[in-house]
User: Fold this.
Amino acid sequence: MDIRWQKVEEAVCGALEIPLDDRSSWLDKFCDGDASLRADIESLLSVQPAVEAFLEHSVAPYAGILLEQDETPAAPAKVGQYRVLNELGRGGMGVVYLAEREDQFHQRVAIKLVKRGLDTEDILRRFRNERQILASLNHPNIAKIFDGGMTDDGLPYFVMEYIEGSSLLRYCDQHELLTNERLRLFRRICAAVHHAHQNLIIHRDLKPSNIMVTSEGMVKLLDFGVAKLLAAENGDGAPTQTQAAAQVLTPEYASPEQIRGQHVTTSTDVYSLGVVLYELLTGARPYKLRDRSPAELSRAICESEPTKPSEAGGGQKQRAAAGPPGVRESSKTANLKSLRGDLDNIVLMALRKEPERRYKSVEQFSEDIHRHLIGLPVIARKDTFQYRASKFIGRNKLAVSAAALVLFAILGGAIVSIWQARVAARERIQAQQEQAKAEQLNKFLQSILLSASPEAKGKDAKVIEVVHDAVERLKTEFENQPTLKAQALLTIGVTYNSLGLGDEAIAILREALQLNSTLYGDESKEAGTCMIELSLPLLNKNKIEEAESLLQKGIVVERKLAPNSKELATGLAVLGELNVRKHDYKNAQALQQEALALFDRLAGPNNEDSATTLVSLGRAQYFSGDIAGAEKTYRKSIETYHQLPARFSGRLAIALLNLGLLLTNAGSFDEGVKAIHQADDIFTKQGESFEQFESKAYLCMVYFNHGNYPPAINYGQRAIEIGRKLGVTEANDFLSSQKFVGVSLTRIGRPKDGEPILRENLATTKKVAPEGSVLIATSESALGECLTVQGRFAEAEPLVTRSYESIKASQGEKSALTATAAKRAVTLYEHMRKPVEAAKYRSAAGPS
Assistant:
């Protein structure tokens, strides 16, 4: 420490003991006219309030608790249904254990458990917040949450994906990654953070130790313990947009606004990612510190300009000095001179003190790195002709060299200069347009998020209200910016469809398709994506022909322009389901298998899109006669859903329903009906819906087919009740439930109760089915049985005989339906004491 700095330190310590009103005169005497010395002292004194607030709010509330943790508690033997194997690590508020699921899956997981003694109200709130956040995120580069609950002694826990790998910096060192390889790895981190931002979540504690990389090179973002929900309610103690003072953070990676205790936004994560990238490329941190005191670190982050990455000397030495004992990591520094230019500017733009001057989003930050990697101009670099020309030449060395030899010989290079200037101008305009577009969309997104805050709409605000408001604003918001309007329309249309609002989704997506086609052409990537997204609600509304036409066009576009896109996988899966409904099972299976391979390649195994596609594939296999294959596919889908967050329980129920129907029809009644009941329980908890109507109808059917009539009546009547409320009285499952209930009542001795139900069923079936349909014939046959039991033979005879002939003609003499109709004819004529007529039907009826 030099003599001058000793004097500054002495002055700061002395001044802190002087009352604020007397401090100026005291400094006059101490500095004795040395203006430079006084400026240094006052600079340090100016950050005193921020440092004190930081220490008071971030450390003090937990100091007493942490000091009490002298002994490390023994690891529990079991947490929930998981057997604890060993401790993986511990942090500020929890301990993480490696555990294994004890059922048939034998899955290894990581369990995060609040430390005993740290279960204060604030810590528990943070813990619940992290669990909620992880459950809402689904991205291949973010650690997944599988389960959660309370231990027997009342401590909350949650179960996460176990990541076996190395921390970011250690992985890069072990594999000796070059600069460009590190940049590509960093872009995957950006993708994970961008996904969190799209789900209204700010991480707030991004650092290398929170980023793991598997041996296969898969990035996994961890630890959302201090993350912030942008639209969280404040009624239960969860953090709100104004509640930022009492946060826990890692100072070395904190932004200036975090250090000062100011409002944080997505730009806060951009800054932290800038520090991570700086360290990833140089092995050092951005600021040269005079000492390791909190005041010095706070001063550097809030006031000092970071050193350019290309000038970051002494990386290893600096890291060792800055990192806390026992948790240091190292990163081998690259040739720092190679970072000059684009990378210097990219990193420094992310590290700007003012949030509004950083990248507008993590996506824009990542895109600028991508532009650097492929040799395009970057947003962070000042636009100059020399810069644009150098980027062009760097991308086209051979072409420029050849052209230069010819053109310089003819025109002395004049034409080359003009051409390059034009290219540079076009690229500058493009970069400026992209930046303006990102800024506008970011502004629109932030305004929507703010409109969803408890302050704006109250804590009971619904997502659908926010989306409706966004639609109204779009009518005028981007009146003169059609490209932005097109992108926003697509996003809102997809959101409507995910909320189950099919009509609204179709209207918005039609508008998005028309606008994108006008702007970019019918064969553009933008138009192709709109076609595929629009086909989903159209298919749900049973508009088969229009959905099929859009899917086929969209898939052609995606195959040509984006053969590895999620949009292509989605289009293939939806077209596969459409072919199931058209009974083209061979083509359906081919499309679904292709979609599954692409989904797994994009998101890894056990993703929700593959799980959904598996159900559709199972149906195609079942209807084509591959019962064993269908059962295997359904079980794989169910196993995948069990590994996904609870919000996918509705889709899990659909898979269970299909498996249950298969098993009951295949003779495994007990297992099958159990699966259908599990599905029905899930749908019942979610409230009256078409899915609940279907599960009740299927329970009615399987119990009827099994000859168990009382539960068939119970579930069938409930299905009829829900179906009437939903307005689906002409649906096949509604009509089938009526038929099963009417016949069941007849067979338990209540034919007069069953007759009006069967007559209504026959009238509706004649209304919706074509003449000669087997549906009409089976309804007539059922009513004929009811009238026979009542002794009304004259009314029953034409119904029974006519329905038998119709069913035999369409289904064949050996079908189960034909046998049932024949048995009813035999029973009728035996009651009428006409043995000759009864004998005519006995062979078709089969054994009694």
About this structure: The mean pLDDT is 79. DSSP finds 37 helices and eleven strands in the chain. The first helix runs from residue 3 to 16.
